[in-house]
Prior knowledge:
heterodimer, A: mainly alpha, 2 domains, 9 helices, B: mainly alpha, Arp2/3 complex 21 kDa subunit ARPC3, about 0% strand, globular
Amino acid sequence: MSTSFSLYIPRESGMHRLHPLTKLALVAFCLVLGLFLPGVWLTYLVFLLIIVPLAAWAGVLPPFLRAAFKTALPVVISVFLVQGLFWPGGTPILHLGPLSLKQEGLQFAIRSAGRFITVVSSFLLLTFTTRPDGLMLALSQRGFPNSIAYIMLATMQIVPRFQAKANTILDAQRSRGLETEGNLLVRLRALLPLVQPLLLGSIVDIEERAIALEVRAFGRQGPKTSLLVLRDTPAQRVLRWLLLLGMLAVIGWRLYLAIAPRLAA
Amino acid sequence: MERLRRDFSTITLVMIPVAIAINIAIGQLVYTLKVPLYLDSIGTIFVAAVAGPFAGMLTGALTNLVWGLSGINSFYTAFWITGAIIGLVAGLFSRFGWFKVWWRAIIAGVITGLIAAMVSAPILTYVNGGVTGSGTDVITAVFRNAGLGILPSAFAQGVSSDPLDKAISFFIVWGVIRALPLRFLDRFSRAEDIR
């Protein structure tokens, strides 16, 4: 996609037809599960039994898994290397030359990887199945400030243009003989002639845009109409409340697990 | 309330998406140059300097949310708190005139970087298992090997990169403010703090 800065994939699926707030509640539920479930393995179940089926239902499973894999892999590899091999004073279970894999470190790495995969894939699920403007409209209808919705949507439109501009400046400076490859000092010195035109050019532009918005009553208070119509159903409203209760229950369970031993002692 | 309304004037609201786009575009440009810096909060620091800590906070938080929820960099979403704190701290420095002199801007950047590392470390520890998935994890491994806890090691990793990164970012913003016409800067609510 070149016009918009998002991995959103339009599909005619049941998941896509859900009200944006329902999708937001589903994703928040997965996030809470990922962040607060106790133990080592439960978060992997959330990924396999909730997030992956939802992505499959939305018809975006292959690109979704690819994106999740790409984001999670460096962190997962690193957490196993850093925490698995360099855990201070752990029980060694496998010797690899001068280093050894520690049981405590391995357990921590498995738990952290599960949590990270669940958190990242929850966010990606929202991205792949929810139109940004639909989500912002749904939030504005519930009293979320219009100005924040404007900021989020305007940003998504501006970023691709800026990236194009950044590449143009990079090419222009290179054709004038600016060294952008070589040792660290050369690359650091290249930074200023690249960053400066991008910054000054884009900041000065905004004054005109501000005037254009002001004459169109941008700052006016009161309700605004939208071209986009969102569908909601009573069943979805019930589902959202249930998800909210579920989140509170998981957080409560985790708090109980943390506090109960201290109360008993 | 009145102060807030002036901070969030139309020109600030138009500036914020541009600032977020600057954060993202320069962040990715720096990434392609393979310089061990991020420079992904120049826009946030600029907004904080000209429109105060609240506008800075909003810019910082939304940068991470937009970048994260676009799916390009979903890793960033959880660090929206760090983004917000950078904007807040930069705005406070601006309030006390620290963007008027270049060396003060650099000191402010170093302090902001330390605070950013402090805020990021707990998130990094809880959500990412203490690692970033990038080259600086070597530092984390060294500190872990020396017997330090997960949180202190993650903080040490942040201290190795954030203060320098923010010092350079603050210096660039100082330069940008000098280069912009006063007539333009005067449209922002905190123009008197940076002149």
